C-alpha cells in the first residue's frame, strides 16, 4: 500500500509544481463558459435551461484536455519502464495514476465547476446536486482518461486520438450526470436512480479501466 | 532609463521608495473609504448598493491599467531587451488578474440586487471576462516554460497580441448596446456624475494605483531575488 | 537481430556485452529486463522466486535516467526506493548519494543538475534497493574519469556481494569481466 501511495503522492506533487493540473483545466473551463453565451446569445432564461448540460460537457472537455500528461512524461524519461519492474502490478500503477489525476484535476474541477454555473444563470436549487453528481462522475472520467492516455502514450498525434477514443466512453457519464442534475427541477424520483447508476459507472471503471490501461502499457513496452 | 537597468540598483531604489508608496496607499484608502462609505450620498435608485461602485469601478480601471503596464513592459522587453522589463511584465500579471477578478466579483455582487441575477452577459462584463482569461493565459505561459529567456519572449508576444483586446473593452460600450451603465466619467462634455460621487471615486482610483505600485515593486523585488537564487543554485550545483 | 546467442552468468560474475553500434546490445538488455520478446529460445533464472520475472529481480539502467526534474535529488531517490518496495531514511539516501559524490546536492532540484550529475543520480539508485541482477546499458555515458571510477567501485561491490551484472560499455572501467559476448561476431547487424 505504501508503494501505491508513494506513486499517488509523487504524481500529485508533480502536478502541483508544474501547474498543469486543476488550475489549467479550470482556465479552460472558464474559456468555454465564455464562448457559450457568445455563440448562443445572452438570454438568461435560455442559458438557464442549457446550464446543466453545458457544465457537464465543459467538464468532460476540461478533464480530457489534461489527460495526455498522465503517462507521457514517465514514458519520455524512462520512468514507465522502471515501473514495470517494480513489485506492484501495472494494474495498480494505472490505478494510482488515475487516483492522482482525480485528486489533482477531476475532483477540484468537480467541486469548483458548479460554482461557475453562476455564469450560466444555473438554478440555485441545482448547485448541490450537480456538485455531488460531478464528484461521483469525475472519478469515472479520470479512470477512463488514464485508459486513453495509456493507449496513446508515445504516439504522434496522441492528443487527437485520445479525444476520439475517450469521448465516446464518456457518454454514459454525461447522460446520467445530466439526468441526475435535471431531475431536481424535473422529475425528482429520477434523482436517486441516476445517482446510483453514476456511482455504478464509477465503480465499474474503478475495476476495469486500470486493467485495460495496464494491458495497453504492456503492449507499448514490448 | 538605462541607469535603472541594473537589477541591484533597482532593488536599492525600490527599497527606499517602498515605505512611501505603502504609506500613501494606506492614507488614500483610509480617506477614500471614508468618503465612499460614509460621506457619499445614497443613490435615489440604487440605495446603499451604489457604494459597491467605489470598489468596483477603480478595480475595472486597474484591470485595464495593469494590462497596459504589462503590454508596455513587454514591448520594452522585446525592443530594447531591457533586463527589468520582462520582470515588470511578469509580475504585473498576477496583480492585474486579481484586480480583474475583484472587478468581476464586485460587479456580480452589484448585479444581484440590480438585475436580480448574479451574472449578465452584457458586452462589458463579457470583455472584462475575456481580459481575465488573457491574464490567465499569460500567467500559464510563464509557468509552462522553464527557461526564463524563452518564456519572456513568448509571454511578451502573448501580452502584445492580447493588448489588442484592451481598446475593445474600453469602447465595447459604444460598440454594442448593453444592459450595463454607459461610460459616464470620461465624456467629451465633462463628467456626468455629481462631484459627491466623483470625488471618492477618484480618491479610490488613486488608492488603487498606489496599491498597484506598491505590490508591483514588492513583486519585482521578489522576482529578481528568485532569479538570483536560481542562478546561485545553478552555479553551486554545476560548480 | 542476432541468433545463436548463448551465455550463462553465475553469482558474483559479470558479463560484458561487446560489439559495434547497432548489433543489438541494447535490445538484448531490454529483453532481459522484460521489454521485448525473443523469437526463439529461452531465458532462465535459476534458484529464484518463481513468482517474479527477471525484470522484477533486476535493476535496469537504460539510456534514460528516469528522473523527475521538478523533484529534488533526494525526492527522486526516495520515490524510487519507496516504489521498489523499500522505505528509506534520509540518512540512507545521503549515504547512497555520497557513493556518487552527490550528497551536497540532495536538496536541489534535479532540473539544475548537469548531464553527468543526472547520470550519477540514476546510478545511485542501483545500490539503494538491493536486487541481485544489474542490467546496465552504457552506464558511463556522460561521466568524467573520477565518476567512472565510482561506477566501477559500485559494480565491483555488487559482484563481490554475489550479484549478477550484465553490462554494455565502450569505456574501459578497469574491471575484469569473467564472461564476454561479442554480438558483432554472432551475426548481429544493424537492422
The structural class of chain A is mainly alpha
* CATH superfamily heading of chain C: P-loop containing nucleotide triphosphate hydrolases
**Which overall shape of chain A is indicated by the principal axes computed on the Cα atoms?**
globular
Element string of chain C (H = helix, E = strand): EHEHHHEHEE
- Structurally, how many domains make up the residues of chain C? 1
Q: Gyration radius of chain A, to the nearest Å?
A: 18 Å
Can you describe this structure?
The complex is a heterotrimer of chains A (222), B (239) and C (191). Chain A has 222 residues and is mainly α. Chain A has one domain (2-221). Chain A has helices spanning 2-18, 22-40, 44-65, 72-76, 79-84, 90-112, 127-152, 158-169, 171-183, 191-221. Chain B has one domain (17-177, 194-238). In chain B, helix 2 packs across helix 5 and helix 4 runs antiparallel to helix 5 (148-163). The longest helix of chain B has 44 residues, at 195-238. Chain B is globular and about 70 Å long. Chain C has one domain (14-186): P-loop containing nucleotide triphosphate hydrolases (Rossmann fold), CATH 3.40.50. Chain C has five helices and five strands; from the N terminus they run βαβαααβαββ. Chain C has helices spanning 25-33, 73-83, 90-98, 115-128, 145-160; strands spanning 14-18, 58-61, 133-137, 164-168, 179-182. Chain C has a five-stranded parallel sheet, with helices on both faces. In chain C, strand 3, helix 5 and strand 4 form a beta-alpha-beta unit. In chain C, helix 2 packs parallel to helix 4 (115-128) and helix 3 (90-98) crosses helix 4.
Amino acid at each position: 500500500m505504501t508503494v501505491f501511495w508513494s506513486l499517488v503522492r509523487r504524481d500529485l506533487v508533480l502536478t502541483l509544481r508544474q501547474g498543469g493540473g486543476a488550475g489549467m483545466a479550470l482556465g479552460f473551463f472558464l474559456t468555454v463558459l465564455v464562448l457559450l453565451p457568445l455563440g448562443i446569445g445572452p438570454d438568461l432564461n435560455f442559458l438557464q435551461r442549457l446550464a446543466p448540460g453545458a457544465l457537464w460537457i465543459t467538464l468532460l472537455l476540461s478533464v480530457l484536455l489534461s489527460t495526455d500528461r498522465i503517462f507521457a512524461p514517465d514514458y519520455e524519461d524512462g520512468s514507465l519502464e522502471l515501473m514495470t519492474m517494480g513489485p506492484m502490478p501495472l494494474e495498480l500503477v494505472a490505478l494510482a495514476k488515475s487516483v492522482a489525476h482525480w485528486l489533482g484535476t477531476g475532483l477540484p474541477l468537480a467541486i469548483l465547476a458548479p460554482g461557475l454555473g453562476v455564469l450560466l444563470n444555473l438554478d440555485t436549487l441545482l448547485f448541490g446536486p450537480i456538485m455531488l453528481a460531478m464528484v461521483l462522475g469525475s472519478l469515472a472520467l479520470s479512470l477512463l482518461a488514464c485508459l486513453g492516455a495509456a493507449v496513446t502514450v508515445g504516439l504522434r498525434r496522441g492528443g487527437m486520438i485520445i479525444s476520439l477514443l475517450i469521448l465516446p466512453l464518456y457518454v454514459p457519464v454525461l447522460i446520467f450526470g445530466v439526468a441526475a442534475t435535471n431531475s431536481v427541477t424535473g422529475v425528482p424520483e429520477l434523482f436517486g436512480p441516476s445517482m446510483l447508476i453514476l456511482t455504478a459507472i464509477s465503480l465499474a471503471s474503478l475495476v476495469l479501466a486500470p486493467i485495460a490501461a495496464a494491458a495497453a502499457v504492456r503492449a507499448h513496452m514490448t | 532609463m538605462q541607469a535603472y537597468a541594473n537589477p541591484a540598483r533597482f532593488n536599492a531604489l525600490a527599497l527606499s521608495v517602498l515605505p512611501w508608496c505603502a504609506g500613501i496607499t494606506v492614507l488614500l484608502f483610509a480617506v477614500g473609504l471614508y468618503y465612499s462609505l460614509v460621506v457619499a450620498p445614497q443613490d435615489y435608485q440604487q440605495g446603499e448598493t451604489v457604494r459597491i461602485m467605489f470598489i468596483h469601478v477603480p478595480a475595472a480601471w486597474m484591470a485595464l491599467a495593469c494590462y497596459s503596464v504589462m503590454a508596455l513592459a513587454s514591448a520594452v522587453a522585446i525592443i530594447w531587451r531591457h533586463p527589468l522589463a520582462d520582470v515588470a511584465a511578469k509580475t504585473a500579471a498576477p496583480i492585474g488578474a486579481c484586480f480583474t477578478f475583484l472587478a468581476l466579483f464586485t460587479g456580480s455582487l452589484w448585479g444581484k440586487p440590480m438585475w436580480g441575477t448574479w451574472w449578465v452577459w452584457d458586452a462589458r462584463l463579457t470583455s472584462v471576462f475575456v481580459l481575465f482569461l488573457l491574464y490567465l493565459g499569460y500567467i500559464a505561459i510563464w509557468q509552462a516554460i522553464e527557461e526564463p529567456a524563452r518564456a519572456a519572449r513568448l509571454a511578451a508576444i502573448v501580452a502584445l497580441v492580447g493588448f489588442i483586446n484592451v481598446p475593445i473593452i474600453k469602447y465595447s460600450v459604444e460598440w454594442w448596446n448593453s444592459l450595463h451603465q454607459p461610460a459616464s466619467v470620461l465624456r467629451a462634455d465633462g463628467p456626468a456624475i455629481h462631484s459627491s460621487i466623483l470625488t471618492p471615486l477618484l480618491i479610490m482610483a488613486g488608492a488603487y494605483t498606489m496599491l498597484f505600485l506598491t505590490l508591483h515593486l514588492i513583486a519585482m523585488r521578489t522576482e529578481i531575488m528568485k532569479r538570483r537564487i536560481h542562478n546561485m543554485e545553478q552555479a553551486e550545483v554545476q560548480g | 537481430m542476432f541468433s545463436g546467442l548463448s551465455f550463462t552468468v553465475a553469482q558474483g560474475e559479470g558479463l560484458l556485452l561487446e560489439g559495434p553500434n547497432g548489433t543489438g546490445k541494447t535490445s538484448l538488455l531490454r529483453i532481459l529486463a522484460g521489454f521485448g520478446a525473443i523469437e526463439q529460445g529461452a531465458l532462465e533464472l535459476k534458484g529464484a522466486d518463481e513468482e517474479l520475472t527477471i525484470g522484477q529481480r533486476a535493476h535496469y539502467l537504460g539510456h534514460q535516467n528516469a528522473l523527475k526534474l521538478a523533484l529534488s535529488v533526494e525526492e527522486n531517490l526516495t520515490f524510487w526506493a519507496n516504489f521498489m518496495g523499500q522505505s528509506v531514511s534520509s540518512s540512507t539516501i545521503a549515504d547512497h548519494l555520497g557513493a556518487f559524490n552527490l550528497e551536497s546536492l540532495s536538496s536541489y532540484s534535479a532540473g539544475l543538475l548537469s548531464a553527468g550529475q543526472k547520470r550519477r543520480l540514476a546510478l545511485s539508485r542501483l545500490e539503494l534497493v538491493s536486487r541481485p541482477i544489474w542490467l546496465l546499458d552504457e552506464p558511463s555515458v556522460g561521466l568524467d574519469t573520477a565518476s567512472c571510477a565510482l561506477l566501477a567501485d559500485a559494480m565491483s561491490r555488487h559482484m563481490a556481494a554475489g550479484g549478477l551484472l550484465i553490462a554494455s560499455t565502450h569505456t574501459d572501467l578497469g574491471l575484469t569481466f569473467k564472461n564476454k559476448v561479442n554480438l558483432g561476431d554472432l551475426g548481429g547487424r544493424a537492422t
